[in-house]
Amino acid sequence: MRVLALAFSFSLAAVAPASAQLSIAFDKYHSYAEMTAFLREAAQKYPDLASLSSIGKSYQGRELWMLTVTSRKTGAPDDKPALYVNGCLDSSEVVTSEGVLFTIKHLLESHGRDARVTRLLDRRTLYIVPRIMPDQTELYITTPQNARSQSAEPMDEDGDGRIDEDADDDVNGDGHVVQMRIADPNGDWKISDRDSRLMVRRQPGEFEGAFYRVLAEGIDDDGDGRYNEDRVGGIDPNRNFPGNWAPVHVQNGAGPYPLYVQEVRAEVEFLEKHRNIAGYLNHHSSGGVVLRPSTTHDDSTIPAGDLRVLRVLAAKALDETGYWLATSVYDWRWPPGTPDMKPGQTWRRPDGSLGNDPREAAGGPGGGFGADAEIDHVVPQAEGEATHAYAAYGGSIEFTYEMLGIISYASEQWRMAWDHDLNKDGAISDLERLDWNDRHFGGSLFINWTKARHPQLGEVEIGGWKKYTTSSPPPGKYLEEESARQLRFNLLVADMLPQLDVASAEATALGGGVYRVNARVRNAGYIPTATEMMVKVRRASPVVATLSAKGEVEFIKGPAAQPLGHLEGAPAGSAGAEWIVRVKGAAPVEVTVTASTPTAGRASRSVILK
Ligand SMILES: [Ca+2]
Ligand SMILES: [Ca+2]
Ligand SMILES: [Ca+2]
Ligand SMILES: [Ca+2]
Ligand SMILES: [Zn+2]
């Protein structure tokens, strides 16, 4: 409970003066034009901290904006260890994009005022893409359509030879596309006797009473008997990455081949070119879950050291977000019907504490956890919450981890009515959701079933949850709170990036103008300078320590540049370097030890030979 209370009490540590404040408020969801205006304002008000660029164009021609955030006074963005963050890869999960904008506002307004953010932006870079699939996000935010999480490129999803021929329709013209119920003695649904708004499944052997069919609100535009079955677009970008991609007969939405979706291609090319990226965060909704690799197989294929880092950081992310489960995508509710309490998972118990926390396990990196996982609580699923996930081929974090070796997470932000678990069973039931809506929103989030005339079906009733309820929070308090959770997740991973320091550099005079120089190079971050996967995929560069001199020196024991291998994260990760040099001219001479590797930046320390 303590953790959840923290989530609520989040506030900016130091409020920026009015002149430095960015004019965005989270009392609404922002259109593409509004988002673009905000990003331009951010880059213009904070030229030393932020620059706006585009990594490509969307299918419909929108720029894929990236805001690069770091202090330019302390070094170029590409020379610092970096975190890449995106929102709305699943374009309808719009809470994620607002959280990214919230993060930008916090970072820029806090640099120079908040010690943590100042240190972060002085030494690390964030590449931030608020909306990687902007076309369908725009459709979702600015029209009644539900615009699923797909590329906008037209596609024949139902194989009838016609393209995008049956989209959502606002049948009663109220500005919402929800659900239709149609009285039908053969229907599979009935009205709950506990709340007349709630539709529940008809049970076998139930013959007495009124039964219904339930359909998405719409018109059967092509007369094939199905409603809204071929909406705008069709390829799922989060199944089109090259990481364990599989064809569409294995993986629904995969597209014709990996990288077919141009927005995915733009992101992949950017990631591949930037060797300084050591962390990747891809935000989704919903559920309140921290997701890590793998998306297609169990933990046995992940090197032990990487698994340890992935699991510990995921548990820390549960602390920061207050979410309920940390898991690989593969293990999440998989196989169907199995509980989320597998050895590689960490879960929140109803009392708020964490079960199977890898930080409590004994043993060295990769060891100790899992063997005695406490099997004391099943994370229950409420009626209406999805009851199973599935292996996801071609997912983003499968690519970034397995092919680039980057420590990668996805989130599932927002859990509707998370603070309204009235019977404290750990699940949010549909009745609790409806009660939450009544108490906090005067019932306004649910459209009560009302009669309408349907051109094909005759009399129907239309009702259901509006947008900004189940998948993203209502604007205002809940959106702000959810965005603050995302901010803390982003800050956590950014703080954990590898970071080189030259902890010490000492010179010992050996006589005759000869000196021994000893330096200790340290990884002050938590993530290693190279993951084991980065080594396996041949993308790991060793840490190199280089001795340079302001004056002429001869290397007796060298060479000037010494590879130190890869460094674990703090506290263990350090390595020593030693040089013996002869000063050719007159002492004193200043020498400088510089340590660098793309994922962990550059650091130096000088010492005088005298
Ligand atoms: Ca079609
Ligand atoms: Ca409607
Ligand atoms: Ca149809
Ligand atoms: Ca339709
Ligand atoms: Zn998603």
CATH superfamily of the largest domain: Zn peptidases
Question: Would you identify the regions where 5 or more consecutive residues have pLDDT less than 50?
Answer: 1-10, 362-388
Q: How many strand elements?
A: 24
* Structural class by helix and strand composition: alpha+beta
CATH C-level of the largest domain: Alpha Beta
Main sheet properties: 10 strands, mixed
Bound molecule types: calcium ion, zinc ion
Q: Note the gap between the termini.
A: 60 Å
Strands side by side in the biggest sheet: 1-2-4-3-9-14-10-11-12-13
CATH fold topology of the largest domain: Aminopeptidase
Radius of gyration: 27 Å
Residue-averaged pLDDT: 92
- Taken from the alpha-carbon principal axes, the silhouette is elongated
What is the helix tally?
11
Could you estimate the helical fraction of the residues in percent? 10-25%
Percent range for β-strand residues: 15-25%
The CATH architecture category of the largest domain equals 3-Layer(aba) Sandwich
Count of the domains: 3
